[in-house]
Amino acid sequence: MRVTAVVLACALAAGCGGKAHPRAPKPPPVKPLPASAYAHYLRGRIAMREGQFALASQRFRAAAASAPGEAPIRVALIQALRRAGHGGEALRELNRALSDFPRDADVWIAAGNLYRGLRRRPAAVNAFERSVALAPDEERAYLGLAGALGAMGRTAEVEKTYRALLRHVPDSVTGHYRLARIESARRDFRAALPHLRQAIELDPDHIEARVALARALRATGDVNGAVDTLRQAFDRSGGDPDVGDQLFHQLLDVGDRKGAVELLGLLDRDDLDAETRIAFGYLDLQIGENQAALALANKLLANDPRSGDARLLRAQALDAMGRGMDGLAPLLDLHPDETAYAQCRAFAAELLARAGQNDRALTMVTDGLAAQPTSIDLIISHALVFERRGDGAQARAVFEDALRDRPGNSDLIYAYGSLIDRLGDPVRAEAIIGEILARNPNDAGALNFIGYSLADRNADLPRAQRMVERAVELSPGNGYVLDSLGWVQFRQGRLNEAFATLRRAARLAPREPEILWHLAELRLSRGQRQKALALLEQAAALRPEGRVRTHIDARLRALRSP
Q1: Could you tell me the CA-to-CA distances from 127 to 78, 114, 208, 250 in Å, in that order?
Q2: Domains, the chain, ranges and CATH?
Q3: Tens digits of per-residue pLDDT, 209-218?
Q4: What is the pTM of this model?
Q5: CB of 451 closer than 8 Å to CB of 468
Q6: SS3 content of the chain, % helix, strand, coil (to 5)
Q7: Are 158 and 143 in contact (CB under 8 A)?
Q8: What does the pLDDT average to over 173-180?
Q9: Angle of CA points 229, 230, 234, to nearest 5°
């Protein structure tokens, strides 16, 4: 006879003699925590939230005593002891927990976190690997492992860990975002795009992912997409000033000056701190909105008349309007203990030196140094006053004395190298600035300085290109760095690329005479005499100094001659 599936199932269930096998026993029900353990545990959690880690440790220890078989309580105790700074005690508790719960992934995650905090990095990696093996779908295990591997410099394995995380937990927002950051860091922006988009789809309020997506879109040529993405990030962040600053530069980059001006109006709010608002004032100055910067400075001074930072913004706005000396007196009416004293003195000295009052400028700086002898701003100003007086040797001596006391100070080294360059020894200047790169090969300012210097001398252009392109990677929205890249391209005869790069630089730094001069040189190379003349006249109106003024004046004389 044919045996149906139902009959077969019944036979298997009944076994020999038609007697049913007993069912597998049900797992015992989970016993509730004793009331005392539960109360101590909740109080420990509250103490953790309030930052009272020693109290939390006491509560969790009491809970563990009432419920010794509960791994989560032991994990909480280890975490509290670690946060309270009791690393040795936390380690002893961890060893007991690992003995009692050797197959609990959360205990191994706690082990990894503790080992990493104690700088036992190989042990941390091993602990997180154990937690991954025990709980392949636990996001925290992969994130901990990636962090431990990163601390050991095992970057290739970090990327593999994030990819493994996304195979097991495809909806991990952190996994998508961090993998995209790795891909972006090696400039593989196209690979980063889908991960950033996925992170945003899973978490629409992930502002960092939106900002990173904007950068990736910009790097892949989708400029308008980058601007739209930053606008969304700005709106979703509730008008975050840092996001707004990036959006401002993106708008300038695409030539939307009107949008940038309107954005500054949105960014400046009375509820922001004065430091942030002053930064917006300098953005106004960057695009020539001098009256807006002056109005903001006056508004801030109405709230805090003694603010040195607001006085300095006011003075620089007046200077941009050709009224620099009108802002001089408030710069000097500050006590050494007040904010921005040194910066105000340094700018006052610059105003006086530009007006030919070098002796007064020198007295002002030396008085300032008597009050604040370690001020980098005043030391640099001291040297610059000597330079304006035509005493290059004394200016060099100021820097050399300061660098003997602070041999690794990058600001001093950079200012010293710039001085030597202006005094006509660019090779020596490059060597001085090279000291910064010896300590930090990714210093964008130093890379830009040397790359531009080489291009300006038309020397070793391949090296100049490498250095400036790296500076652009490190500081992608910097008009001055883009100007250097455009000048390198111009020297190499890559005129179309140079034109596009220099126009971007001029959009980002529209009041920089040197960029306008470079654009004029490019126009002249194309035979566009009138356009070059207009650019040079615009540059001259911005009151350039030194070598740049010499070049601009010489070109203007040549173009205006019959």
Answers
A1: 15, 10, 30, 44
A2: 467-560 (1.25.40.10)
A3: 999 999 999 9
A4: 0.78
A5: yes
A6: 75, 0, 25
A7: no
A8: 97
A9: 120
